[in-house]
Design brief:
Oligomer: single chain
Mean pLDDT: 76
Shape: globular
Radius of gyration: 30 Å
Number of helices: 37
Strand content: 5-15%
Structural class: alpha/beta
Helix content: 40-55%
DNA sequence: CAAAAATGTATTTTT
DNA sequence: TACATTTTTG
């Protein structure tokens, strides 16, 4: 009894169904009565866009630069397919990367085509479509169709248990790290058997593979999946059951993929399985793949399997042609590939024409979003990348009124926030909507300072992304209760809340439940029930356990009868969970209660507890209220796909952006990805773009002197304007930036990065050495002269960050010393009681010395911890 | 078993 | 620094 049948979804149903045109046309008709000529939606498309919409047959790759109307093409294309009766809504597979994108496509298609969207069950993220497939064919993957989807937290806890079971040192082999590795393998489509020997050895003294296997087995017994499985299981099913695959080959007449540059190997395999229809095919494809050094994925081999059966019904006859034709349309932009770190393979997009011979490639290069200045800046920047297909975006002729891209220096991050805040207030006074303003940061810790500032200014802001609703402690607890009620065998959820609120069920008791569960082969909840009736357990925990078990069985019964929202309320009430927070006097308790209410409220939108749980597992974010006029604050990554009238990009400093870690781990490729991220950031802006950098930033609680991002140097001068801030300390930025006669040598920097790999942590010798190198580079490239009196900080042309008088720090010296351990080197640099001077904090005396970290009592600024490199003897 | 203290550890992005 | 997690203490 495999999952719900197609007919439930009203999709492709039978040989005698109406002709496709029928339904689609009717749907259209309902939505937009008679006058809606089929070509209506085509109006306003430029020739390339139109071509992308109308080339419905065969493989199509649309290379859509930023702001060129990518989503419009995608949605119009679907509308076109429907309107011309080429397919039923249910015969279109449209995959996106994020829920946001899926949602947007649904709405936009909806407005084009009306209710037909209702019948588009296969529009969604890779993962949500994966779940759908898997629910139907769960038994082929050894699961029941009511399997649960584990989130990262569940996974980590599970792995931790496995590591403990193996008696491994948890500190040496952290669960998070291993779950990361598993994630990576799954992104590559590798099961336990497929991982490389090296990978297998890399963890836990060679137990990597064994652990991975154990993990998968555990998932199976738990009847659970992690995110990766949502893709991998379907892939495996398709490979092992050609009949199932064929079913989907018949079903999906058109495949559309959004953000193709972000697909990882697993997603790529998945797509190829679905897209490459079995017909007589030469093996050259497969050869190509291996010849080019790609992993010989089994997709290609298994593909070649049975030839299309031509025997069946009229449908086979109709589709015989189409089945060989791969109507796949991938839309993407190699310049916006920013998820390489999580397994995305830009290569997928670069290789498209080889994968799908005869593909039509359409470039969308006309930008409808940004001014010529912004576009000019972005294009010039991205041109520094080598690995790209190369597009040339263009726009209308520049309007002399258009503002240039602003670059502004600040002293530290606090000032940066102040400057941005002031600029926003100015804009607001001129009638600028806050909703049209965004601040895009590289890393989320940067947000705090802006939030602080906006709070004091009373400026509305909204954080997008960030810590997500469903990841909050109280929500996860509540969800765990619900999960156990919905499926009594969800051990992970059970374990999470047996002792919440505190019932005196500690480690010992839980272990006992665990053991019983193992021994008897029953879920923990059941085991708890057994235990509560036996006398192997002390009276106190026994009573508590009894109550828990009784609670759950009562709730489970109510599941059938009581509306799920009421049940949810009852559960939280009777379990004492809400009471727990009511009694909690801490500052966050009221907020948590509020969140719980919100949770119940959001459940109303779903028809059952189960469907709600599914939603939460897949869509981890909660919607925000759009009514409020507020500045958006988010990371660059979550800004992809959005656009704003005005964009602020703070933190353009080496080490932060490009991020040190990207450089360390990714080398040149890492740098290029950072540059693409910068490109994404720049191209979010329609009209006003402000870049900021500061010379002092606190990282890990230590003050670091920073230098401007190399990306600033990669912007074309003619599109950029440097703002002189009248009231700020000025920093070294403006003067240097403006008069840069010898631009920052990117190659030089690359060399440094390549020849002396930084280590992964800021506190390490590698990082410090990097700092030293950069100090050097800064002097050379930003026109700083040593020998200036330090008093001159604050005037435009002066060096404020480095150099002058800081005798104890010479790059070379540091190089030599820092090979040693960071905490033990140069013990003699300063000693307690020394008078020192710091660029930011002024004079002070050393209160404590820990290797190169000094605790200093500053005369004005109070006690701070700083690296010795940033102070000099007073 | 729970609360307090100490310790450690990571601070990029997320379906 | 700041947070989470572990160890110690009551």
């Amino acid at each position: 009894m495999s999952a719900p049948s197609d007919s439930a979804r009203g999709s492709f149903s039978g040989p005698n169904g109406p002709r496709p045109g029928g339904i689609a046309a009717r749907a259209l008709g309902r939505a937009t009565p008679a006058e809606s000529a089929p070509s209506d939606y085509l109006r306003g498309l430029n020739p390339e866009q139109r071509q992308a919409v109308e080339t419905t047959e065969g493989p199509v790759l649309v290379l859509a630069g930023a702001g060129t109307g990518k989503t419009r093409v995608l949605t119009t294309r679907i509308a076109h397919i429907l309107a011309t009766g080429r397919a039923f809504p249910s015969q279109i597979l449209a995959v996106t990367f994020t829920n946001k994108a899926a949602r947007e496509m649904k709405t936009r298609i909806g407005s084009l085509v009306g209710e037909a969207v209702e019948g588009m069950p296969w529009l969604g993220t890779f993962h949500s479509i994966g779940v759908k497939l898997l629910r139907r064919h769960a038994e082929l993957a050894g699961l029941r169709s009511d399997f649960t989807i584990l989130d990262t937290d569940d996974v980590n806890r599970l792995i931790k248990q496995l590591i403990q079971a193996e008696n491994l040192d948890e500190k040496r082999w952290p669960a998070r790290q291993f779950s990361g590795m598993i994630d990576g393998w799954k992104n590559k489509g590798q099961g336990p058997k497929d991982i490389s020997e090296g990978d297998a050895r890399a963890f836990a003294n060679g137990k990597g593979r064994q652990l991975y296997t154990a993990y998968q087995e555990r998932l199976k017994t738990l009847n659970a999946c992690d995110f990766g499985d949502l893709l991998l299981h379907p892939i495996r099913i398709f490979r092992e059951h050609p009949d199932v695959l064929r079913e989907y080959h018949r079903k999906f007449k058109y495949i559309l993929v959004d953000e193709y540059q972000d697909t990882n190997t697993a997603q790529y395999m998945w797509l190829r399985l679905l897209a490459q229809r079995p017909k007589e095919r030469d093996t050259s494809d497969a050869k190509n793949l291996t010849a080019e050094g790609r992993k010989p994925d089994r997709a290609s081999a298994d593909q070649a399997a049975p030839a299309e059966a031509s025997e069946q019904s009229e449908r086979a006859a109709v589709s015989a042609n189409q089945l060989q034709q791969i109507n796949i349309c991938c839309v993407g932009d190699d310049d916006q590939s920013i998820y390489g770190w999580r397994g995305a393979e830009v290569d997928n997009i670069l290789r498209f024409e080889k994968d799908f011979p005869g593909a039509t490639v359409i470039k969308l290069e006309r930008n409808y979003r940004s001014t010529a200045h912004i576009l000019g800046a972005a294009s010039h920047l991205i041109a520094h990348n080598e690995d790209r297909l190369g597009k040339t975006l263009f726009t209308e002729a520049p309007d002399p009124e258009d503002p240039k891209v602003n670059v502004q220096a600040g002293w530290d991050s606090e000032e940066e926030a102040r400057i941005v805040g002031e600029t926003i207030e100015t804009l607001q006074r001129r009638g600028h909507k806050l909703n049209d303003i965004a601040i895009l940061v590289r890393a989320s810790f940067q947000m705090r300072e802006f939030e602080d500032r906006f709070v004091t200014l009373g400026l509305n802001y909204r954080v997008i992304g960030g810590p997500r609703f469903y990841e909050r402690l109280e929500i996860r607890d509540a969800m765990a209760f619900f999960r156990v009620v919905a499926s009594a065998s969800d051990d992970l959820a059970f374990e999470r809340i047996v002792n919440v609120p505190k019932r005196g069920l500690g480690e010992a008791t839980i272990r006992q439940i665990h053991d019983t569960s193992r021994a008897m082969g029953i879920p923990m909840l059941e085991a708890a029930g057994e235990l509560a009736e036996s006398d192997e357990i002390k009276p106190k925990p026994r009573a508590a356990l009894r109550e828990v078990v009784a609670n759950f069985s009562r709730w489970q019964k109510l599941l059938e009868t009581l509306p799920h929202t009421e049940l949810a309320e009852q559960i939280l009430e009777e379990s004492g969970y809400t009471a727990m927070w009511k009694n909690d006097r801490s500052a966050e308790a009221p907020g948590r209660l509020e969140n719980l209410k919100e949770l119940i409220r959001s459940m109303e939108d779903y028809e059952s507890l189960r469907s709600f749980l599914e939603h939460v597992a897949l869509v981890m974010d909660a919607e925000q209220n759009e009514d409020l006029d507020a500045v958006s604050l988010m990371t660059l990554h979550s800004a992809k796909g959005l656009e704003f009238e005005t964009v602020f990009l703070p933190g353009w400093e080496e080490g932060l952006f490009p991020h040190q870690r990207a450089l360390d781990e990714g080398g040149r490729a890492g740098l290029e990805e950072e540059r693409r991220l910068a490109y994404v950031g720049l191209t979010r802006a329609k009209r006003n773009l402000y870049l900021n950098f500061v010379s002092n930033r606190r990282i890990h609680g230590l003050w670091q002197t920073t230098i401007p991002s190399r990306f600033l140097d990669e912007l074309p001068e003619k599109h950029v304007e440097v703002i002189e801030s009248s009231n700020s300390y000025g920093g070294y930025g403006s003067g240097g930036f403006k008069g840069r006669h010898n631009p920052y040598g990117a190659s030089r920097f690359d060399k440094a990065a390549a020849s002396q790999p930084f280590s992964s942590s800021y506190g390490t010798p590698g990082w410090q050495r990097a700092q030293a190198n950069r100090t050097d580079a800064t002097r050379n490239n930003w026109g700083m002269r040593s020998g200036h009196a330090v008093e001159r900080i604050g005037y435009g042309e002066t060096d404020s960050g480095f150099g002058a008088g800081r005798g104890s720090i010479k790059a070379r010296t540091i190089e030599g010393e820092l090979v040693a351990k960071s905490v033990s080197n140069e013990p003699a640099a300063f000693k307690v009681g020394d008078r020192v001077f710091h660029q930011k904090f002024g004079n002070g005396s050393v209160a404590a010395v820990e290797g190169n970290k000094l605790t200093i009592d500053f005369d004005r600024a109070g006690q701070k911890r700083v690296l010795d490199g940033f102070v000099s003897a007073a």
